[in-house]
Amino acid sequence: MIETGKYNFKLVSLCLLFLLCTVVSHAQIKGEASYYADKFEGRKTASGQIYWHHLKTAAHRTLPFGTLVKVTNIRNKKAVVVVINDRGPFIEGRIIDLSKSAAREVGGLQQGVFEVKIAVLHNRDSLENRRNKKKDR
């Protein structure tokens, strides 16, 4: 009887963990966005990639490099999908720094700093886990 109880507890715990991860991964976060200054063109990012204005990339404090994020300008509802390849922003209240072309696409160049919501679409780590599971089959 005790063994069954332990098994049920573990099963329920795993289900709750799965649900929590699903909710968190689909959560939308609101805050301020800004974009890279021209002086960063051609410089290395924290991931080792070179920053180019024309690429749809962004900096985030904690998301893994390679994560795809949908960024939506709250004022005009324009959206862009970017790849996280750098760390930042390090200014209070800002949640993401966009490349210049990404900021242009959502209509943020004139404002400089603008309200956005971000949603994680795809995390590179989750893709690698799926690939590994397919290999194991």
TrEMBL record:
Pfam families, alphabetized: DPBB_1 (PF03330)
InterPro entries associated with the record: RlpA, RlpA-like_DPBB, RlpA-like_sf, RplA
Single GO MF descriptor: lytic endotransglycosylase activity
GO biological process, one term: peptidoglycan metabolic process
Name of the protein in its database record: Probable endolytic peptidoglycan transglycosylase RlpA
Keyword Magnesium attributed: no
Alphabetical UniProt keywords: Cell wall biogenesis/degradation, Lipoprotein, Lyase, Signal
Name of the gene: rlpA
Domain spans labelled RlpA-like protein double-psi beta-barrel: 30-118
